[in-house]
Design a protein that fits this description.
It contains 20 helices and 35 strands. By secondary structure, it is of the alpha+beta class. An eight-stranded mixed sheet has the order 8-7-10-9-11-14-15-16, with helices on both faces. Strands 1, 2, 3, 4, 12, 13 and 17 form a seven-stranded antiparallel sheet that branches.
Length: 721
């Protein structure tokens, strides 16, 4: 297999071919020099491919433009038993599932001749007009030292060619785009300075980790502002490399949260958190430290000896190939990095229009109009479509560009982002809303939406009706109450907000019923009030957001009049809250409202398809022979007892249960928070009481006619914490 004709038999024009491992091994042992066989054999050994696994060579799509598709050769190992399940897995299931999935051990990309290169101190980008370049889609040889000239060219090309997209602000014109009390690092003077007016700056997105961190504190603020303060500082490698990179690219200012936000000043910190959306969206570009899991990981390639490049050149007939750096997966260095799993970095990714991403293997450029990478020449190609997106994070890959161009509804995007956010890791649960605040800021600016403890006010009653699928637990995290520029107390996140909970399962997610869909309605049936830091009640006004299209009020027909008559059976007029019945310490996380309440019995039955092995039902509330299911958010604290239902359930409950039926049951109070007009249903929260305050433990939908029939329901003012 030494001549070119035999080499060409390894195909490039077919879609798939099985690799004969035995035949190839025999040829190698006999001294036959097939470069591809030798390369594949090396990667089979490197990736510990089992003897029972099949190896296949296939042509895969990488990216395309208007009249051309770029392919890669992918060498995959296929297990003897394949499991194609692609849903979410529990942590203990991942390792076993990975062993039953096909995995890529090597990828090759075609190169033009001569092979383009990145070179220290310069760059080689084809300067011919689009359509004449022979190096489009070509692989590119890389240097262990990152080529700042190439990165500078990416920045210039984006600013020159992408003005229509990347030059478009996230924020609409009426929004005041001014950063308050904004500090930056002057990379020439090597100190912290007040940002000058119309400051052009670069932002850094990275993972703090658990390493010692140089932080800006009130005690060292004056010292950090002295020229040269950061020259010999104890700043971690990522920050030091970012300073060197920014200076090498000809920029002057860098924003880093640890040094540009005074970390022990709660008032100033709150101001900075409130404008986090502006910080990243207004940056010239954002440097992403996607290598390692802490601030000590650095930016590979900036300092000598910080990255190793392993590229093999392979000739098959007249074609020349380079091994792909991220050969284990498309953009594997980005997809699998710690940066993609952290809660704080999600809003930093979504709100940055331009990202310069450093992984262990190479550097990527990602903006609203292009993706460029060190190992492949793509700079001369317009309108590229990738078959797998770069920096994908599932639903959160939907960025704010979708809202800006009107292709996505605001509350629909909100739902997607909340769930993507809840999958990420957060070191301190106290930051759960802080790390989401920039996204809320963008929603407010773009769609005129406002938020109360993470819930959209335009559909507040519907927003309260979230379900934590697959079970969860309260996080019991605290946050500060600030008044008159000082912290007056710390309070727990309210149980009615998703921010107070975390899933106990890898399969967990939050769902809302019709939060983002138009529903014929006039006003919410339940009127909610909150308190300010002076203890005064304020009504939470459900004003439709600009980007959220609500339906028209229902017509006045016979059905509507019947519905209103039903409502009058359980709803009384006293809605205004001028003074609450709550006498405890000030807590701005409390809701106060008049509503209908009832005490009901919930039963528990074994059910294999749920997170805890049980399903929960309201006893006595039946719909044409089927029981009413209830979602219990957390059950560890509920004391179920096994009793005879007939003897324990109070009279007045609807359809009585069978005489000999025995269940585990618990007594819970339910409070109505929403009316589902189209279904004639009520949404009620299951609550527990403590010191006169109700706390959410679950949720249920009940037919309005069934609720009216309850004999023990009561109309009263509720304080929900």
């Amino acid at each position: 297999m030494s001549d070119a004709e035999d080499d060409r038999e390894h195909f490039y024009d077919e879609d798939e071919r099985q690799y004969d491992r035995q035949l190839a091994d025999d040829g190698i042992r006999q001294g036959q020099t097939c470069e591809l066989c030798i390369l594949i054999a090396r990667h089979i050994e490197k990736n510990h491919v089992g003897a029972d696994e099949t190896v296949k060579i296939r042509r895969t799509n990488f990216c395309s433009t208007i009249n051309r598709v770029s392919y890669r050769l992918s060498i995959d190992a296929i297990p003897a038993t394949v499991d194609d399940f692609c849903g979410p897995l529990e942590a203990h299931e991942i390792s076993e599932a990975d062993q039953k999935r096909a995995h890529t051990i090597l990828q090759l990309q075609e190169c033009s001749i001569p092979i383009p290169t990145t070179v220290s101190g310069g760059f080689q980008i084809e300067k011919k007009p689009l359509g004449t370049s022979h190096s489009r889609f070509s692989g590119r040889l890389m240097s262990p030292k990152a080529d700042l000239g190439l990165f500078h060219e990416w920045i210039n090309r984006c600013e020159t060619l992408h003005k229509e997209k990347c030059g478009q602000p996230i924020w609409p014109e009426p929004v005041k785009q001014v950063l308050v009390s904004f500090l930056v690092i002057d990379v020439d003077q090597m100190c912290i300075v007040d940002a000058p007016e119309s400051c052009r700056y670069v932002a850094l997105s990275y993972c703090w980790g658990t390493v010692p961190m140089l932080r800006h504190l009130r005690g060292n603020s004056a010292a950090l502002r002295k020229e040269g303060a950061l020259t010999d500082s104890l700043a971690p490698a990522t920050i030091s490399d970012a300073i060197q990179l920014v200076k090498g690219l000809g920029e002057k200012y860098l924003w880093v949260d640890a040094l540009c936000v005074i970390q022990d000043d709660p008032v100033l910190k709150k101001v900075q958190l409130a404008q986090m959306g502006l910080v990243y969206s207004m940056a010239a570009f954002t440097i992403v430290a996607a290598a390692g899991d802490s601030a000590n990981a650095g930016l590979p390639g900036i300092r000598a000896g910080t990255r190793k490049i392993d590229q093999d050149i392979l000739r098959i007939g007249e074609k020349v190939f380079l091994t792909v750096i991220d050969g284990s997966d498309y953009y594997g260095g980005v997809k699998d990095c710690t940066w993609m799993t952290r809660a704080w970095t999600m809003q930093e990714k979504l709100l940055s229009k331009k990202l310069l991403i450093f992984t262990d293997e190479q550097v990527y450029w990602k903006c609203w109009d292009a993706v460029w990478l060190e190992e492949t020449v793509l700079e001369n190609v317009l309108k590229i479509s990738f078959f797998k997106p770069l920096v994908s994070a599932g639903p959160s890959d939907f960025g704010f560009a979708a809202l800006v161009d009107g292709s996505k509804d605001l509350l629909s995007l909100y739902e997607l982002l909340v769930n993507a956010y809840m999958e990420r890791q957060l070191s301190f649960k106290t930051d759960i809303l802080n790390a989401f605040s920039g996204l809320c800021q963008a929603f407010t600016a773009i769609g005129n939406e406002t938020f109360h403890w993470g819930l959209p006010v335009s559909r507040f009653d519907a927003a309260l009706c979230w379900r934590l699928r697959a079970g969860g637990q309260r996080n019991y995290a605290f946050c500060d109450q600030v008044k008159d520029d000082s912290v007056i107390s710390s309070i727990q996140f309210p149980s009615w907000s998703w921010a107070a909970w975390h899933s106990t399962s890898a399969r967990g997610w939050i769902s809302w019923m019709n939060l983002h869909r138009s529903e014929s309605k006039d006003t919410a049936e339940i009127i909610f009030y909150c308190q300010d830091t002076d203890g005064n009640p304020h009504r939470i006004m459900e004003t439709p957001a600009a980007s959220n299209k609500l339906g028209r009020p229902p017509p006045k027909d016979a059905k509507t009049e019947k519905t209103r008559n039903l409502r009058s059976e359980w709803k009384l007029p006293q809605q205004i809250v001028e003074k609450t019945s709550y006498n405890g310490p000030l807590n701005v996380g409390l809701l106060h409202f008049w509503t209908s309440t009832a005490r009901l019995h919930a039963s528990r039955k074994p059910w294999s398809r749920t997170h805890d092995g049980f399903a929960y039902f309201l006893i006595g509330l039946q719909r044409e022979g089927s029981t009413t299911g209830v979602f219990i958010d957390a059950t560890a604290h509920l004391k179920f007892k096994d009793i005879d239902v007939k003897s324990e359930v109070p009279k007045g409950i609807l359809v009585p249960s069978a005489a000999n039926q025995t269940y585990e049951i618990v007594v819970l109070d339910f409070i109505v928070v929403r009316t589902k007009f189209s279904l004639n249903e009520l949404c009620a929260l299951a609550v527990e009481w403590k010191d006169g305050v109700a706390y959410r433990v679950g949720i249920v939908d009940v037919k309005e006619t069934e609720w009216i029939e309850l004999r023990n329901r009561e109309w009263k003012m509720v304080t929900l914490g």
